[in-house]
Amino acid sequence: MKQILSIAILFIGLSTVAQPKKTMPNILFIAVDDLRPELNCYGASQIKSPNLDKLAAEGLVFNRAYCNIPVCGASRASLLTGTRPTRYRFIDAYTEKDKDNPEAVSLPLLLKNNGYTTISNGKIYHHQKDDKEAWDSRWFPKGNIRDYQLAENIKKNASANLSEIGGAAFENANVDDTAYFDGKIAQKGIADLRKLKNKNKPFFLALGFMKPHLPFNAPKKYWDLYDRNSITLPESYVQPETTPKEAFHNYGELRLYGGIPKKGELSEDLAKELIHGYYACVSYVDAQIGLVLDELKRLNLEEDTIVILWGDHGWNLGDHKLWCKHSTFETALKTPLIIKVPGKTNGAISNDIVEYVDVYPSLIELAGLKIPSTVEGKSFVPIINGNKSDKNWAVSKFKDAVTLIKGDLFYTEWTDDHGKAYARMLFDHKTDPLELDNLAEKPEYQNKVNELAADLRAKWGKDFLRKN
Predict the structure, then answer these.
(1) Active-site residue flag, 276
(2) Tens digits of per-residue pLDDT, 250-306?
(3) Which residues form the Sulfatase N-terminal domain (predicted)?
(4) Counted domains in the chain
(5) Does pLDDT of 22 surpass 80?
(6) Which candidate in 72, 127, 320, 326 is catalytic?
(7) Which CATH number is 47's domain given?
């Protein structure tokens, strides 16, 4: 009897030890505001971003990832629902998922409904209250959104919000990293990882970093990484006459800051100072992301965690004599997208075209869940598995402009409410990567333009022209 009891106790003990771990992976979801793919992992760059480069060396870098709309609120809502922007849905920075597409089950809500702990820190949706049922907890740093540390800027900014003229467009302050929002967001993420470490359920931890969004505020040590004399204006610092006037804008977002002229071009010195500030902010946010990734490793969570890093859209740093996003040039549409999947990625670079509506179905497939029928993107898991994609296109839009990216061709139409074009541009990146020679009105390209126009309408989404 004693022997039988001993065997039973041993069996129970072995059963306890052998209980399976959770099979669904954790997901560390890192969004970076206004980050363009000007990083060494995308080719030689002046920007010092060792932590993002290290992540790229362990992950998969998508060299041709494109946002579906180059403005933060709409881009984020589109990505998080896996649904495309239309003429009437996901329009601008102030987009709310709950208003524009309330029927869609968002990525975090689907994960939450399937046993994940979901946490939103920093800027994930543009509005903190949006999609509130999707999160177990939400947190955002306290303070004015422009987050100045120098007294002069604080005074000039007063209670201004992002639609009012405030302090300077950049700030070089001799402060610690945690003085600014992104340092606080990193520390909150680290604290959450420590709490989540011993939970017996998977997590979706979303960290939304603010820089390099305007104003370009970063601690002095990151400004000191760069020599202003080595900074040059982009080669595409020109607006050719063949490019439709509709393609350009007055970069009104930048003009809401002190020290920026209200019209006309910027001086060369000011332009270089802005580029310097942008670089400093990228290095600053890179350091904060590095702290989070180091903690993930220290906690032995790396092997159970997918890490995905994305910028919500591109950004013009004087390209085409433009600043900010809000255009359909590649500089505003092309984005950094890096994913690290334990056991699957090893620093490869993919030149397959992917778009942001593809992120949702990819993460859901990696989690082993069913992709909802409302999702319009296509999973890029086959690319992660080392296969070529059979999809060589993406569609992006901003206001009336709609762009089909197909192979090396970038074709844009400005259309009215009925889908009729009133301006066009076409660039062939094989011969014109800077997008300076518009081919759309040249007689020898009319057959190609007609072909692309039909293809654009076939791919821009079934609801593109529908008002409700």
Answers:
(1) no
(2) 999 999 999 999 999 999 999 999 999 999 999 999 999 999 999 999 999 999 999
(3) 25-368
(4) 1
(5) no
(6) 72
(7) 3.40.720.10
